[in-house]
Amino acid sequence: MELGLYQHYKGQYYWVQALGKDSDTLREKVIYQGLYENEYGKNPLWTRDLKTFQEPLEDGRKRYRYIGPYPEATQGIEGIILPKEK
After folding, report:
1. Which H/E stretch holds residue 51?
2. In terms of Cα–Cα distance, which of 43, 46, 36, 47 is closest to 12?
3. Beta-carbon contacts of residue 46 (< 8 Å; ≥ 6 apart)
4. How far apart are CA 63 and CA 3, in angstroms?
5. Cross-strand partners of 66
6. Is residue 84 part of a domain?
7. Contact 49, 24 (CB under 8 A)
8. Which domain CATH number covers 64?
9. Letter string b/e over residues 7-18, b meaning 16 or more CB atoms within 10 A of that residue's CB
């Protein structure tokens, strides 16, 4: 799986930052950040099982579509809120 910018099938954009393992189950995880603000805050961080992240929807569409490397791929996309650099 490539790191970078992904778009959820409902339209939101996410920055996939890393892959890791759950320390208890050793299941592979995706660590990603929302490029938006909602009830969970600005640029919320998420984890999801890699298998779930990659599995298609019932109609065969991809749940998350790879757009390109981050941050270059964000150029020209309106509505994205980029996280502040640390």
Report:
1. helix 50-54
2. 36
3. 14, 31, 32, 33, 34
4. 16
5. 6
6. no
7. no
8. 2.30.30.320
9. beeeeebbbbee
- Provide the domain limits for residue 58: 4-74
What six digits make up the tokens of 76? 């020209």
Assign residue 26 a region: left if phi > 0, alpha if psi is -120 to 50, beta otherwise? left
Range in 57-61, 76-80, 82-86 with the lowest mean pLDDT: 82-86
Task: Establish if 79 belongs to a structural domain.
Answer: no
CA–CA gap between residue 48 and residue 30 (Å, rounded) = 5
Q: For the chain, what is the domain count? A: 1
pLDDT digits (tens, 9 = 90+) for 43-72: 999 999 999 999 999 999 999 999 999 999
